Amino acid sequence: MAVNAIRQDEEQKEVLKKDTLVRLYKYLLYFKKELTVVAVIMAVTLTINMISPLILERAVNVHVAAGDIAGLVRLGVASVCLFLIFAAGTRARMLLMSRLSNQVLVKIREELYAHIQTLSFHFFDSRPTGKVLARLIGDVNSLKDLLSDSVTKLIPDFLTVVGVAAIMLVKNAYLAMAALLTLPILAAGMFFIQSKAHKLWQTFRKKNSNLNAFVHEDLSGIRIVQSFAAEEETRKDFYMLADEQRNAFRDAVRYADGFGPVVEITWGLGGFLLYFIGIRVLGVGTVEIGTFLAFSTYLSMFWSPIRNLASFYNKLITNLSAAERVFDILDTPPEIADKEGAGELPQLQGEVEFSHVTFAYEDAPEKMILEDVNFTVRPGETIALVGPTGAGKTTIVNLIGRFYEVTKGDILLDGHSIRDVSIQSLRSQMGIMTQDNFLFSGTIRDNIRYGRLDATDEEIEAAAKAVNAHEFIMELEKGYDTEISERGSRLSIGQRQLLAFARTMVSDPRILILDEATSSIDTHTERLVQQGIERLLKGRTSFVIAHRLSTIRKADRIFVIDQGNILEEGSHDELMRKKGAYYQLYESQFQ
């Protein structure tokens, strides 16, 4: 299957910026009450801001011109009161919007995490975990300022620009047109910059994702790195990826920093044209001093939000690629999902039937992993799967749990097609012990309970005793309450695998899958575990994958898998008498 390597930039489908923005802003609608409060506060502060130059105009043209000191004082007091209301409202609006944007981020991250959990093994097989983490954490965090500024800055600044332009046109159309003549220059400059910057920011986020993936993988495998004294090689790789990230960031910033100068230049030209036309063209006496002062203030009020809008637009171009990457994951459809009207799988007896099952990965349909596989397993029967690496043994058990979808054919449990029942009801009746003895950070008790979250302490201890893990657990300082890390520090490989085995057993499954369950256990411990396995297999349909053929001699039937097919099947004694593929495997192993 195609795999996205650490140093390989991720592919990303092109979408319209407008569609991404609309989709992002829809999340704000989940918090309509909070938005309403912010909107009311914003309307009050915006109104106060818009009438401030009119107060200045009245103060000069009316009260100063007439020598009305009392009126000027009253106007000054009113202005101070309005300023205090404006300051308090602006502060409240910023705090409320900051809180609201955090709530939106939490919702997006929860939705993204929940969706990622529905994706199939193929999704995780085809990309490094670090790249998924980069989207879940880094890219989502990048949206905070974009969401917050959209309401606290974009809307009021946009309304300010529109309102100021309207007032200027009403007060004096000639002066207004003079001040706005440079807007086409601004629009052309911003369009050019954003068309270049957006692509560069997309590249930066891909390089950042590569670096995250490398660091995650390197730290996860730090024992291997140190064991092979490969610190220098990995350090070089890190420096190379960090340089690529830095260069991508530098290239993007070079264009993004052009927004400021474009705004400043057009602002300066607009101010020059205002005074030039007002003084040289219209004449000094044509415009009252108060009106000129009001226009000067309005000009500042017009270009200041324009500068803010340009800054926001820069931030938008910078972070829009992060939103695109988040939605790219959300738009990835689960390859394995409940079909419409899927029912609940009833309590299983344990019959498993493969009916003409063929399987190939979607991105390599020409390479068949399994081809026309047929067999029926009776309830309570133990089936051992043996064969060379890559023969298809693990694929068979993964298909039973519907971790991949069969390409052709069907799998039935007690006569029910696994496609017709919900995934949750299917997997809740299965216990799977894989080669990966992964443990979660927490106590030993919590790790075993992960197999069934409502398991009692007595059931947890019973499962541990069944696989002979209870004795070494009780030797630890805090017993079942001993804290362990995800790597199972303080525990041997065998002990970690015993805990993983107990975790599987506590789920009391109807169908049990053991994929190399005893591969990391020493011979002495293996004998103890085998005793527990024999007790726990009773009454359950079980599939056991093992390379050590001595561990599966008591299986009811043994399937010899090779090249995606069942070459032989039968009990150990029957297959040994045939002297076929199983006999050769057994003899070669013990020779």
Give a brief outline of the structure.
This protein is α/β, with parallel strands linked by helices. It has helices at residues 17-25, 32-66, 69-118, 121-125, 129-141, 144-171, 173-180, 183-220, 222-227, 231-256, 259-281, 289-330, 393-400, 423-427, 444-449, 457-466, 470-475, 493-505, 523-537, 572-578, 581-590; strands spanning 352-359, 370-377, 382-386, 408-413, 416-417, 430-433, 442-443, 483-484, 511-515, 541-545, 557-562, 565-570.
Overall spatial form: elongated
Q: Sheet bearing the most strands, described?
A: 6 strands, mixed
Which residues form runs of ≥5 with pLDDT under 50?
A: none
Separation of termini? 36 Å
The overall average pLDDT, rounded, is 80
In DSSP terms, counting alpha (H) and pi (I) runs of 4 or more, how many helices? 21
How much helicity do the residues have? 55-70%
Count of β-strands: 12
Oligomeric state of the chains present here? single chain
Radius of gyration over all CA atoms, rounded: 35 Å
Query: In percent terms, what proportion of residues is strand?
Result: 5-15%
Specify the structural class: alpha/beta
Q: What is the topology, as strand order, of the major beta sheet?
A: 6-9-10-3-11-12
